[in-house]
Structures are given as structure tokens and as C-alpha cells.
Amino acid sequence: MEKIYLCRSLSETAVVAREVAAQLKGKETLAFYGDLGAGKTTFIRALCEALGVEDEVTSPTYAMVHEYMSGPFPVYHFDMYRVDGADSLFSTGYYDYLENGLMLIEWSENIEEALPPDHWRLEITHGTVPDERKIRLEKKK
Questions:
Q1: Which of 56, 67, 94, 138 fits a disulfide with 121 by CB distance 3.0 to 4.6 angstroms?
Q2: Could you tell me the CATH number of the domain that includes residue 86?
Q3: Contact (Cβ atoms closer than 8 angstroms) between residue 14 and residue 49
Q4: Using CA atoms, how far apart are residues 102 and 76, in angstroms rounded to an integer?
Q5: CA-to-CA distance for 56 and 48, rounded, in angstroms?
Q6: By the 8 A CB rule, do 41 and 10 touch?
Q7: What is the domain extent for residue 86?
Q8: What are phi and psi of 138, to 5 degrees?
Q9: Model pLDDT for residues 81-115, shown as the tens digit of each residue
Q10: Each residue of 97-117: b (16+ CB within 10 Å) or e?
Q11: Share in percent of the chain as helix, strand, coil (round to 5)
Q12: Is the pTM of this model over 0.90?
């Protein structure tokens, strides 16, 4: 399944995040793709809000993973920007988190070979005007 959204504001992005959140059961892996500043963390923040997560959602750039436990199920938010191989991926604890909650992974292109086959691919790209984003959601099988 593939769906494409064109969002012209943060509120429209939040609507898409709510639509995605309504489909989640808590064991999925969402692999986020997009250039620096495309809006990956912004979308994840809106998604977590839609799920009822009360924790502060911030980019885990330096921590590598943030755990949010205040929602209906555990949410694990990864930033794989600095992952450059199997050893550095292992050091993030990634494999311990699989199937233990919702996995939200920024910079997924750095770990594509380690993604579960049934992950969701969420690609965010800049639009033609400021604040416009194109969001492409694809469920892999």
C-alpha cells in the first residue's frame, strides 16, 4: 500500500500523523527518510502526540534513542544518522528493541539491511514553497 500526502502547514502534517497513528498497534517499525530539515522529527512529534505520548519528543541525535513510555505502548525513537556499520548499529541497542514497541527510525537509509521486512517507509521531502512537505507512506511486506 502506498499513499502520498501534500502538507502545506504543520496542522496539515498533524492530520496525516493522526491518520497514521490510528493504524498503529504498537509493534510496527516506521522507517523515516528525508534530507536534513525535511521534517522527520516534526512528524514524529505530531505522531507521538496523536498516540497520547506525554513525554517531550526531541531528536535523539546524540543519545541515539529516546524511549517514550507515557502512551498506550512503548515508543522507541532512533536517530541512525551516525550509524556506519553493523558494530555501531549493535551499540545502539536496536536489536533489543525490535518487536517490543513502536520503532520510529530517523535516517533509516543507514540501516536498510537491518529493517524488518514488514516495516513502513515514510519519506518526507520539501515541497515547492516554504513549509510545504510531500509525505509518501508505503507499507512494506
A1: 138
A2: 3.40.50.300
A3: yes
A4: 6
A5: 9
A6: no
A7: 2-139
A8: -135, 130
A9: 999 888 889 988 999 999 899 999 999 999 999 99
A10: beeebbbbbbbbebbeebbee
A11: 30, 30, 45
A12: yes
Please state, in angstroms and rounded to a whole number, the distance separating the CA atoms of residues 129 and 7. Answer: 11
> CA-CA-CA-CA torsion for 69, 25, 57, 12, nearest 10 degrees?
-150
Q: Judge whether 75 and 101 are in contact, CB under 8 Å.
A: yes
DSSP state for residue 84 in the 8-state scheme: -
Q: Give the H/E segment covering residue 85.
A: none
Residue 75 has a CB neighbour count (10 Å cut-off) of: 24
Domain count across the chain = 1
Q: How far apart are CA 94 and CA 13, in angstroms?
A: 27
Residue 120: what pLDDT?
A: 97
Cα–Cα distance measured from residue 34 to residue 36, given in angstroms and rounded to the nearest whole number: 7
Strand partners, 31: 105, 121
CA dist., res. 58 & res. 41, Å (int): 7
